[in-house]
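Sequence in, structure out.
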Amino acid sequence: MSSTSCRAWSTSWTSRSVTRPRSTPCSCATPPEQRASRSSLSGMGADELFGGYRKHLATLMTGRYRRVPKPLRTGLVAPAVRALPVAVGQHGLRTVRWAQRFLTFAELPEEEAFRRSYTLYDTDELSGLLDPGLATHVEAVVDRHRAVYEDTSLTDQVSRMCLADTRMFMVGLNLTYTDRASMAASTEVRVPFVDPLVFAAAFSLPGSDKIRGRVQKAALKDAARAWLPDEIIDRPKASFGAPLRAWVTNDLSELIDDVLVRGELVGTGFLRPEPLRRLVDDQRSGRRDESKQLWQLLSLELWYRNARSAGVGTS
């Protein structure tokens, strides 16, 4: 299935589903016309339960980073990293993108750092992008995240992050898009890691058994060595994402200008035009990687138009 047809095929359900870019390859992993089996197993839940996400390790690493003298961090390291471009020509600089992302939460306390490790805006950035009347709603979402994160008696940071992910990220996003993408292909996906027995076993372990040094999902890998060879267990984690930066910068450039920048969300005042234009300019200049933000905003614009065309919100 070509990338063009894949995007077109997935649009029909993405517009009423979620804006997670990973949902597109999920929908295209096996097109319905090529699928022999109507059920499959997913590893969804393993990262949340056993500390497998890059954000888990990155948030832990903020403590090590803060051991560097503050004048050196704020006067040399941070300005130098922020001055670097995230792309040169058509070539993205992944290490720079990751370093700039890390700096957005490296100086923050635990809960806030964890939230910023996987969200696209800080509170002021999001409030500045949206209608001023929505600022209280932004604050309410942030307060709710804090309440969920702190509602635990777990004593180590890794376990607190994992529990927060199972309560929010896993059920609110990952299981949602897995279910909708699989149902769009008439396929049942089963998630054995979400079994209550596995859940209880995962949270009976200390966080040090989940992340050892830079090894993530360590306990799960230990258990798997009874059945799988080391070269499978120890290979780098493979991404299941979409080529989002290339899409936003190239393939979708005209669509972003015509549909998003001059779109209905800007026209209604839901989005403010100046901050949106800065996102677009930063992305195209290579100064910042704003591809996820623009993808989500474009998806929101298309969802809004589809809803309006179906008569939602009209008298």
